[in-house]
Amino acid sequence: MSRLLPLVFAVPLVLAAVGVPLRRSIGSSRALVLAGALWLVGAGGWLLWATRDGGVVVARMGGWPPPVAITLAGDTFASLMLCVSGFVVGATAVFAFARGEDRRPFFHPAALVLTAGVGGAYLTADLFNLFVFVEVGLAASYVLVVSGAGREEARAGVVYVVANLLASTALLAAIALLYGAAGSVNLAQLAGVGSDRGTAAVAGVMVMAALGIKASVVPAHGWLPRSYPLAGPAVTAMLSGLLTKVGVYAAYRVGSVVLGGSSGIRIPLLVVAGATMVIGVLGAVGRNSMREILSFHMVSQIGYLVMALGISGATALSAGVFFMVQYIVVKASLFLVAGAVESLEGTGELGRTPGLARRRPVLSTAFAIAALSLAGVPPLSGFVGKLGLVRAAFDAREYLMGGVAVVVSFLTLASMVKIWNGSFGGRAVRGPRGRQTPARLLVAPGLLTASLSVVLGLGAETLWALAERAGAALADPGAYVRAVSG
Amino acid sequence: MAGALIVGILAGAGTYLLLQRGIVRVILGFVTLGHAVNVLLVLSGGPSRRGAPIAGARGVPADPLPQAFVLTAIVIAFGITAFLLALAFRSASETGDDDPEAA
After folding, report:
1. How distant is the Cα of A171 from the closest Cα of chain B, in angstroms?
2. Model's pTM, two decimal places?
3. In chain A, which residues touch B (CB < 8 A)?
4. ipTM > 0.85, yes or no
5. For chain B, what are the domain ranges?
């Protein structure tokens, strides 16, 4: 069974290769992308089932013995991320089809390569291959971001590419230093070196810092709000669910395995988390279009994830995993709704589309659900995630952190109300009209993702149990390390 | 020592170029910075720890891992540089300037 693990990212890569000669036929290209997304969901589900007893599925490339082989390892955390990433790729791809955004050159192969890179990054147990997979995903995302025609897109593309390339270069340098200090890039062999050797700890922290740029934590957050809102709406939704989260996911892994047990990174991580939450949410205040506001909130929510890593311990990490999984869904939903408003009304500027709630009740309902979930209102999934995080903070006597998290939630709610009042509320007046496209397919992805947030909120116990298993494995990576080292 | 000096000079030059406005200089900065990291990767194998980069004086084989890393990194950097140059070309033909931030 475990030999099938490489297929998780190999299949989307093959589909991408098939998609290049087929790219003129829009129907088969779309089928390929949906197949890739479904494949990722299915692979995540299979892996979830295979690791239901808390085990780790391990594959060694080329059949080499443990320290030599490049190792892939799938545990509960990785399978959850595979499932939710596949779901987001599928939902955003359908939205791109409905908008016609997939008529941009190489959209379908790039989306598939992105899927493959993200899937590989979740599974690799080897830092150098993490770099390679992240780079594969990023290269595809560069194509997606800059393939729009306009001048604004070109400018946003340059910011996006330069920031991420710098982060990749820093990540590679950090991995080189870690290899120099510890003599390996295999996560199992790097287990605990952060607390044993000072040089390795410095290199490990550098790896975390480089991943932090990719995850857009303060003070390296500037690139995200300057580039995401200018990419195509479907592309923004797709990237929001995948790439910054890969950075956070890898930081969880490295923090848990390499730096596990070293208390020195706790305070810096918490400071960064608090600053990210506050600066992200305050940055949204002065913005005036839906996607710009949402991009700043993306920065803010990353702070919650870093907070869980900073508090560490099984409770906080479980809450972090739960929050990350549901947050990917919620954020994709918000961007999908914002994109649908832009397509249907021609603009996402606040105040230009009054009375949208009366004219498009379904779309507005989807926005309301996702926005309340982002702010953390019960009974939606965001509430469960934030409750877990705040409780973990108070349990660990990080009262300031818990307080900041609660206050930022209120500010998030205020910001969501601002969007509602600006774009959805008020009397129905005809706004500037966008293209007449079949509206149903444009609205469906946003509604589907928003309803998943309701399901994850009302039926939180299933996901919470899985997140607890993943969090416990992160807090004590012994089983993961033993499985990888063979 | 010589290795550290090379990495330092390349990284310094690369950083300087990255901070320039024109996109072509930024690309050259990334190329230079990439070379700095490549040299760093080769050095991380450490002649002192695992013998010389080629089969050493005592016949100790070299550490193959950093060389594989560098090879991979060079290939990736090559692809990304080509992409960046295409982006710079498009940006220049749309704005008539190689400064992407110019209004």
Report:
1. 10
2. 0.92
3. 128, 132, 135, 139, 142-143, 146, 151, 154-155, 157-159, 161-162, 165-166, 169, 172-173, 175-177, 179-180, 183, 185
4. yes
5. 2-95
